[in-house]
Design brief:
Layout lengths: L7 E2 L8 E2 L3 E2 L6 E2 L14 H4 L21 H11 L5 H8 L2 E2 L8 E2 L3 E2 L6 E2 L20 H16 L11 H31 L1
Antiparallel strand pairs: 1-2, 3-4, 5-6, 7-8
């Protein structure tokens, strides 16, 4: 036999195989082959020293004591069914409490999203006045109406005589006042829309 000093024999009585890479049991300290290294395979008398399991509940992170001979999975399952303090349904109710007031919408948000015009709370999808048919201080404008107002505001700003002071007559003065009021309303509408879009993200 070549190199007889290499390796060790397995300590299991039924095996005694010569193993060149023997493994030492961390409980009893004896040497075993790869087939008998586990505690159950060599009936380790010191396994109780190492085989202590304290599983932790995956939901509430509480250590759960397991008696010797009990299966940890069953004990943890019983804890989750009876004693676990974690309740995802309660947490969801605590976080998402702000219900959208748009008729037919059932979404809830973590924070209140309040419309500046009507003061009601809405979800992210219905936060803009056009999306929830706002009945606030001003009448809601359709998207087509808004586009028309924007085109008119650009035309008013570009016209050369829009800001000039009337030279003669009441008729000209009235037209000047009407143009000025229209321009002011369009500018306010434009500014309000810009502020809403900035506030909404």
């Amino acid at each position: 036999m070549e190199l007889p000093w290499l390796g060790e024999h397995c300590s299991e009585r039924s095996c005694k195989q010569l193993d060149f890479l023997p493994l030492k049991c961390d409980a009893c300290g004896e040497v075993f082959c790869k087939d008998h290294i586990r505690y159950d395979d060599h009936k380790c008398s010191s396994a109780y020293k190492k085989n202590v399991q304290v599983p932790v509940c995956p939901l509430c992170n509480t250590p759960i004591p397991v008696q010797r001979g009990q299966i940890p999975d069953i004990v943890v399952g019983a804890h989750i069914d009876k004693d676990c303090q974690y309740n995802p349904a309660q947490q969801k109710q605590k976080i998402f409490t702000n219900k959208c007031t748009k008729p037919g919408c059932k979404r809830k948000e973590m924070m209140k999203v309040i419309c500046e015009q009507c003061g009601s709370s809405f979800c992210i999808k219905h936060r803009h006045p056009l999306d929830h048919d706002c009945r606030g201080s001003s009448q809601p404008i359709s998207k087509a109406g808004y586009a028309a107002l924007m085109r008119a505001s650009h035309a008013t700003f570009k016209s050369p005589g829009a800001i000039g002071v009337p030279s003669n007559g009441n008729r000209q003065h009235n037209r000047y006042q009407e143009k000025r009021q229209t321009k002011t309303r369009l500018w306010q509408c434009h500014c309000h829309t810009f502020e809403c879009s900035r506030a909404g993200g």
